[in-house]
Amino acid sequence: MSNAQHHHPASDDRSGRRTRLSGQHRFRNRSIGGLAAGVLAVGAAVTATTPSNGTPAPPEAYVADSARHSAPLVSDLREDLAAYLRDHGTAEHASGIGLSVSLPGARPNIEVTAGTTTFNGRKPLSANTLWQIGSNTKAFTSVLLLQLEAESRLSIDDTLGKWLPQYHRWHNVTIRSMLNMTSGIPTFDEQPAFQRDYAAQPDRYFSKEQLVRYVLNAAPVTGYSYSNTGYVLAEMIIEKVTGDSYAHQLYQRIIRPLGLKDTHYREHLYPRWVTQRQPAGYFYLDGLPPLAGQVGRDVHRDSLSWARGAGGIVSTLHDMTVWERAMYRGRLLPARQQSELLSLVSTATGKPIERTSTEDSSGFGLGVQQGISKKFGTFWVYLGSTFGFRALHLYFPQSGVIMAVGVNSLPTRSALPALAESIHDTLESHGLIPPAK
């Protein structure tokens, strides 16, 4: 669920050279710094699909039909993905990559895949591939809380003491600060005890309470500091306020209303009918002694109970774009709560900012992130990860284009920011994205 680390993701060194899951090591949003500045020799495939259940797609859930786009455009995007695999597949231990591009209006998505479902394998990826989307999940959790606020059932400025008084050490921490990463609560996934427990039994069940216990006695952090613990606590608050499970609220309020038929959430092990649609997902981080024995493992069938409302959703890239468009366009929230969702703090200082700028180029909202660059202009982005997957989305407000990319490994260093730039250049060369002003 990776943390952007808000360093230059062009190198995206998640190890931080410490025994902690920092940067890409954490299943959080990875920052956009490198995207703002700045994706294995396997056959690429373009897929054209319609919903597998044969039902009409809901509004904005555009049917994937790459055949309706120009052959040169599709060919160029295919080459972008294939080049990523040729250049970085071995180093990142990634066998496959997928891309979905959502265009404004009622135009179909462009769906392109490259590579295979396993490293050195033969089965190609398809547009129906399911990906662990990591910390892209966080915006879902934030929207649930903001919907509850709109219903006057809570305020995002309520304190943790009001809803979860058992955590008296953090009684003055607000929901807002947990969502924008300024709460001071450490992230559990950096704790050696958590890393040892996960390594000992990757299919074990981690309860919400257990995850929080890993940091109960940890030193507080200051300023902007990415914390998955805050989103586990947010999940607990949703359940306390509604008297219902997080999963049921997620399906009832977001997944079903948006018709996201290929988006799934389980708080523990996913069923085979989900995992068989996923590629292998490879853990490939170094510099983390407690997890050294996991390097090279396929983790796609392991439990995601450690990720939960911070990073536990599985989805197609197509569904990701449908969700992102609905979220950014305010289809799920009243105006006040939409404004709160997109309100920013500087990832450099932790202080509120109205918007990003060339001087302060990375801002974090309530589970969303904004950046600015000469190439992209102002854009929204999230690079999420789990222990075996990376999922990146970018939204360009000027053109209305959204792209979602999935890769089936979690390496120490990631070249995804460079791929995002290549895809952007291709879309720009075909007239789908105007040059940044």
Write a brief caption for the model.
The chain has 437 residues and is an alpha+beta fold.
Kindly report the spatial arrangement of strands forming the biggest sheet.
1-3-2-14-13-12-11-10-8-9
- Within CATH, the superfamily carries the name DD-peptidase/beta-lactamase superfamily
Write the CATH architecture name: 3-Layer(aba) Sandwich
Summed up, the helix count is: 14
CATH fold-level label: Beta-lactamase
Which whole number gives the mean pLDDT?
A: 87
Q: Which consecutive residue ranges, at least 5 long each, have pLDDT under 50?
A: 2-67
Q: What is the count of structural domains?
A: 1
Question: Would you tell me the structural class of the helices and strands?
Answer: alpha+beta
CATH class: Alpha Beta
Question: How would a textbook summarize the main sheet?
Answer: 10 strands, antiparallel
Helical coverage, percent range:
25-40%
